Amino acid sequence: MVPRSSQFRARHLADTGAPFGVLAATWHQAARRYTVTKMSTQASREIQTFPNPNPGRDFEIQCVCPEFTNVCPMTGQPDFATITITYVPDQRCIELKSLKLYLWTYRDEGGFHEAVTNQIADDLIAALDPRRITVVGAFNVRGGITTTVTVTHHKG
């Protein structure tokens, strides 16, 4: 039997201590529970993280942003790209809404494809200190040419 909406919401409230539909959560390792809090919806260069729930195991996380935009510094025209972030976390994992808000900050900034992709990688490395990370910027066609920039980093 599928629980009714009211039963689901009541169970969510009992499990989390917060009403259903709140935007973000903070992990409490000892209790293995989340405390739910609201997050901003404004673009921000702050990258938020949370503790890796399985730091003793290597596992890969892939985040894909198919709607990345920035501005070409030569023409002032928008550049569109798919940014793919693949990493093996060490002690920290990236909070996805925070990643989205971080990537939004590039919308009105001028930057060459190579510089933008490297800056994203540098900021993620600083925030996460991952075991390994690859950031791929696959930029849409411009003047008949597509550009793909791949940045790879291995810890140690």
Question: How does this structure look, described?
Answer:
The protein has 156 residues and is an alpha+beta fold. It has three helices and eight strands, in the order H-E-E-E-E-E-E-H-H-E-E. The strands form three sheets. It has a four-stranded antiparallel sheet, with helices on one face. The longest helix has 16 residues, at 113-128. 18% of the residues are buried. Residues 20-24 have low confidence and may be disordered.
Strand and helix map with partners:
Blueprint (H helix, E strand, L loop, with lengths): L4 H12 L7 E5 L4 E5 L11 E3 L9 E11 L6 E11 L3 E3 L1 H9 L8 H16 L3 E11 L2 E10 L2
Antiparallel strand pairs: 1-2, 3-6, 4-5, 5-7, 7-8
Short description:
The chain is α+β, with helices and mostly antiparallel strands.
The CA-CA distance between the termini, in Å, is 51 Å
Q: Give the proportion of residues in helices.
A: 10-25%
Output the helix-strand order: HEEEEEEHHEE
Please indicate the percent range of residues in DSSP E strands (runs of 2 or more).
35-45%
Mean pLDDT: 86
User: How many β-strand runs?
Assistant: 8
The total count of helices amounts to 3
Major sheet summary line? 4 strands, antiparallel
Strand order of the largest sheet: 4-5-7-8
**Given the C-alpha coordinates, what overall shape results?**
globular
Query: What structural class do the secondary elements suggest?
Result: alpha+beta
* Regions with little confidence, pLDDT below 50 for 5+ residues: 20-24
Radius of gyration: 19 Å
